Amino acid sequence: MKDGYFIALDTGGTKTNALLFDERGHILKHILTKGGGPMDVGIAQCGDNTIQVIEQLRKEVPAGHKVKSIYCSIAGSNYYPGRMDSYIRPRVSTDHLRIWDDGECIITATLGRADGGGMIAGTGACLFIRYGQEYRRIGGWGYLLDSTGSGYTMGQAALNAVVREADGRGEKTLLTELIGERMGGKPDENLPAIYEGGRAYIASFAGCVFEGRRKGDPVSCRIFDWAVGCLAELTFAAAPYYEGEFPIALNGGLFQAFPEMSESLREKASPKARLILATVPPVYGAAVEALWSAKIPETEGFRKRFMEEYDSQK
What we know:
globular; 13 helices; alpha/beta; 5-stranded mixed β-sheet
């Protein structure tokens, strides 16, 4: 019997992480490229980017074999019911194709089939919860309405503090120096770079908030506390959906790069929420979902082999 091959793709606001692998967990090809869901770049551009990555991965499939299943986790795709699927499916050949937003794979990566939640804190921020056959998003209504607790809103708040200081409207803050060093010039004199860089560029300045907090900058401390409070609020909104304690997997760039964020969140979250810092990336959850779509179970051997090869290719 010929081996089956699978594609898992995870697209967020900043990057797309995509893999070609077999059912034993061997990774044949790993692509890391630009991100951008439909709310960032539109359905057509997001769809074209997704198809391009899939086709790049297909080129690595051994002769005589095929891709059995493809799972695409695309941030914000569920705000456009069926439209990403309608755009991509006619252009992709496979036995099984599933397109979903980025919440399902975050939960699956850590919790498997169990009920619970997955919180993402990266360029964007959101809490996804699963209970029985139900699935729900809490927060994360897009950066124009509600992405509080995210790298974008932290970066935006930091830049706001800097320009307010420049005007004489706000207090002095170490963020002016920290952002200036990262930007390579005074922030208030580099507006074109900020606006051209967009959401992902603004989110990149969230790291300055963490650095400023470690150095005792009061403005940075307030931004940090506000962001963590926003994330904690999501856990209280999720609590009524569960009778007792429920797990939440924490994933995304902020949690992975800045452990103080998850530590502070534990202190402020709902007492019913059991927070688990994810040890696997969201794309692993997408890989498991691709297997499940083809009715192939995840095994410990698959997980171990997949993560060993994934880590070796970083």
